[in-house]
Amino acid sequence: MALYHVGGKAVKRSPLADANKTRPSSLFSDLLTAMMAGAHRRLRQDMTECVYLIDSTSVSLSQLSVDWARYSEGVCGAKAHIIYDPAADCPIHAVVTPSRVNDISAAKKMPIQPGATYVFDLGYYDYGWWQEMHAAKCRIVTRFKSNTPLKVASEREIPGGPILSDRVGTLPKRQARNRKNPFSDQVREVRVQIDTGKVLRILTNDLDASAQEIADLYKRRWAIELFFRWIKQTLKIRKFIGTSENAVRIQIAVALISFLLLRLAQKVLKTDEIDLAPLAFSRIVRANLMQRRRLDELHRPLKKPPANQNQMEFAFAA
Question: Which helix (H) or strand (E) is 57 found in, with range?
Answer without folding.
Answer: strand 51-61
